[in-house]
Amino acid sequence: MATVKNKRIAMMGTGALGGYVGGYFAHNGEDVTLIDFWPEHIETIRAQGLDLDGVTDPEKFVVKTAKTLHYKDLDTLKGQPPFDIVFISVKSYDTERVTKAIAPYLAKDGYAVSLQNCWNEDTIAGVLGAERVVGTIASVISVELYAPGRIRRMAEKGGDKHTVFRVGEIHGRITDRVTELVNMFSLIDSAKATPNLQGERWTKLTQNGMSNGICAATGLTGHDCDNNDAIRRFAIAVAGESIRVGKALGLKLEKMGKLMPEQLEQASAGDPAVLAEVEHFMKNRKAANPRANIQRPSMAQDMAKGRKTEIEFMNGLIVRKGKEVGVPTPANEKLVQAVLSVEGGKIKPSASVLGG
After folding, report:
1. CATH number for the domain including 68?
2. pTM: predicted TM-score of the whole model, two decimal places
3. How large is the average pLDDT for residues 149-160?
4. Pick from 112, 154, 142, 145: nearest CA to 130
C-alpha cells in the first residue's frame, strides 16, 4: 500500500487523467477529494461512483469511496483540515487560477503536484513557491473522459515494458516526497523517480507536440495519422524542431518510446536510412493496441467536444522557446495556426489542412 495514509489529497481537475489517477488512489484507500468544474461529472460520481475502464478486466471497476466537490464550492473547505497534497490536473490555461484558488486550503508543509501536459511547474511555483512544487509526467497512458463519471484507458498498462509515471523535483534531487509519490503511482502502473524532470517534461512535450495538435487539426486518430505519408512526415518535422529547441535550451531529452531523440532529429533533417527506420516504427506501433482505430489524444478529444485546446501551451511553447534560442520552428508554427483555425471554426478538420 501507499505511504500517505492519514494525509488529505485533493485532485484539482478530474477529467481523463486527474479522474483516472484520483480514482485509483481512492480505490487503494487514500483520502481523496475530487474537485471539478463540470457539475454533471461531479453529480454523476456522487450518485453512481466513478466508473473506470481499461484494456483488461482487472482495470474495470467503480470507485465509490472518493469525496467530491464542485469547484464553485471551494469556500466550503474553510474550517476543514488542509490538504497535504494537491494534484493540479487541469488544462494549462487554467493552471494559475486553480492554483490560486486551492492555495488557502493547502497545509503549510503541503505541496502541489503538476499532473499535466505542457510546462506548468513554473506557473505553479509562481503562486506557491518553487519549494512546494513537484512534477509528474504520465507517459503513454491514453485516458479518456467519455461521459460524466466514466473514464477509460485506451492503452495497455506499461508494466515492465515502459515507465508510465515519472516523478521529480524542479531542482533534480530525489526527495522523500518524490519517493512518496512514486510509491503511490506504483499502485496504478510503473513509476520511477527522475533527477531530470525538465528533460522528461520537454521529451513528453515533444511527443505530445507531434500527435495532439495533428489529430486535432486533421480529425484523424493517431493510427490514421501514422499511416498517412504526408501527415507522418509532418509529425516528424514537428518533433525534430522541438528536439533542436530542447537541446538549445540545455535540456537532456529522454528516449521517446522506442526512439531516441537523435533518431527523430536526423529523420526530420532528411537522413534517408534513419527516416525509413522511424517511419517503419510509426506505421507499426499501433498494431498491438486493440483500440488503436478509435484512440485520439487529449487535444483531439477537446476539439471534438468544442473545448479550448492547449495548442498555445504545447506547440506554441515550442515556437516561443525556439525564438528565444534562435531555432526556427516553421512546422510547429503551421500546426498552431491550423489548430487555432479549426478551433475558431474558420476551417473544418481535415488531413488536407496539414498537406495530407
Report:
1. 3.40.50.720
2. 0.91
3. 87
4. 112
